[in-house]
Amino acid sequence: MKTNFTTVTRTAAGHSSAHPEYSVIVPTFNERENVAVLVWLLHKYLSDLVSFEIVFVDDSSPDGTADAIAQLQLVYGTARVQLVRRPGKLGLGSAYAAGLASSSGHFIVLMDADLSHHPKHLPAFIAAQRAANADIVSGTRYRLGGGVAGWNLTRKITSRGANLLASFLLGAQTSDLTGAFRLYRRQSLAELLAYTTSRGYAFQMEVIIRAEYSGLQIVEVPIVFVDRLYGVSKLGVWEYVQFVHGLLGLLVGL
């Protein structure tokens, strides 16, 4: 299941002259206050390192997130900032699929829009992928150097407990099954999305478990997850219910 990509022409700076090397796909819903800072940070940490594009997938945010992204396109250009508008909340997996269809990078970064996934970690992701020729680089809160900032004790225990339970039951080697900050080879992600059926909190778990079971090479990079400063968290009781449902489905179906 390893993926070999066709070599593309390089400019003097080492960036692709045809398509960007990396596509950063960012699903959004009511993230108007965060998108400008996120784009600035991505530009800061990636612009001198690789060629890249940012693909926002907005599910008709009532706070005007799409309009804010459109303004960013005027500043950075539509080649750097792309916007996929959807008619409503259609699910995380379909948002990634829509972003993938609109992107052209050989490697795909998936991350949240709320600044909990800091772009400063991406150079380490890229270096780790190149060093190991990995199919997936997964950001982890649960290896030495990783962690969480801004969570109360209850949320820390719940998140860690969910990961430990799923790892034990599924025999997983990846330490952060529910983390959403990852780098994929394009073809690997496309294949995984085609088979993943879970929704919500369980989605990331199913993707990485299927990747392990498929024999894809996964490396982990420690990250510090910082709770959002602006906006409202999407995580609620229903997300935990979906996680349990997804875990049970994997136990039966894999």
From TrEMBL:
<keyword id="KW-0460">Magnesium</keyword>
<dbReference type="GO" id="GO:0006720">
    <property type="term" value="P:isoprenoid metabolic process"/>
</dbReference>
<feature type="domain" description="Glycosyltransferase 2-like">
    <location>
        <begin position="23"/>
        <end position="192"/>
    </location>
</feature>
<keyword id="KW-0464">Manganese</keyword>
<dbReference type="GO" id="GO:0005789">
    <property type="term" value="C:endoplasmic reticulum membrane"/>
</dbReference>
<dbReference type="GO" id="GO:0006506">
    <property type="term" value="P:GPI anchor biosynthetic process"/>
</dbReference>
<dbReference type="InterPro" id="IPR001173">
    <property type="entry name" value="Glyco_trans_2-like"/>
</dbReference>
<keyword id="KW-0256">Endoplasmic reticulum</keyword>
<dbReference type="GO" id="GO:0004582">
    <property type="term" value="F:dolichyl-phosphate beta-D-mannosyltransferase activity"/>
</dbReference>
<protein>
    <recommendedName>
        <fullName>Dolichol-phosphate mannosyltransferase subunit 1</fullName>
        <ecNumber>2.4.1.83</ecNumber>
    </recommendedName>
</protein>
<dbReference type="Pfam" id="PF00535">
    <property type="entry name" value="Glycos_transf_2"/>
</dbReference>
<comment type="pathway">
    <text>Protein modification; protein glycosylation.</text>
</comment>
<comment type="function">
    <text>Transfers mannose from GDP-mannose to dolichol monophosphate to form dolichol phosphate mannose (Dol-P-Man) which is the mannosyl donor in pathways leading to N-glycosylation, glycosyl phosphatidylinositol membrane anchoring, and O-mannosylation of proteins.</text>
</comment>
<dbReference type="InterPro" id="IPR039528">
    <property type="entry name" value="DPM1-like"/>
</dbReference>
<dbReference type="GO" id="GO:0035269">
    <property type="term" value="P:protein O-linked glycosylation via mannose"/>
</dbReference>
<comment type="similarity">
    <text>Belongs to the glycosyltransferase 2 family.</text>
</comment>
<dbReference type="GO" id="GO:0046872">
    <property type="term" value="F:metal ion binding"/>
</dbReference>
<keyword id="KW-0328">Glycosyltransferase</keyword>
<comment type="subunit">
    <text>Component of the dolichol-phosphate mannose (DPM) synthase complex.</text>
</comment>
<dbReference type="InterPro" id="IPR029044">
    <property type="entry name" value="Nucleotide-diphossugar_trans"/>
</dbReference>
<dbReference type="GO" id="GO:0006488">
    <property type="term" value="P:dolichol-linked oligosaccharide biosynthetic process"/>
</dbReference>
<dbReference type="GO" id="GO:0006066">
    <property type="term" value="P:alcohol metabolic process"/>
</dbReference>
<keyword id="KW-0479">Metal-binding</keyword>
<keyword id="KW-0808">Transferase</keyword>
